[in-house]
Write a structure and sequence with these properties.
Layout: H1 2-8, H2 28-33, H3 37-56
Length: about 80
């Protein structure tokens, strides 16, 4: 909760969107075996967001700001 408070003071007051990316249940064992894959997941999300904004705003030269947060719904991502 403290991290959220710190981050909120750094944000620009503007309209924002909340996007949720979900890992399919069948793929979750791969993340359980190799936590380094989570970095690939965040890079993929970053790529999707940047590509989407570029396509929507070709005439404007800006980069969107975003924060990625992992939420495991209480399930530990560690090998059993």
């Amino acid at each position: 909760m403290e991290n959220i408070t710190k981050m909120s003071f750094k944000l620009v007051r503007c309209t924002h969107r909340h996007c949720v990316f979900t890992v399919d249940e069948e793929l979750r064992p791969f993340f359980l075996k190799d936590r380094n894959l989570l970095n690939c997941l965040f890079q993929a999300v970053r790529s999707v967001i940047l590509t989407m904004f570029h396509k929507m705003n070709k005439s404007k030269n800006f980069v969107p700001g975003f924060a990625c947060v992992l939420h495991t719904f209480g399930r530990p991502l560690e090998a059993a």
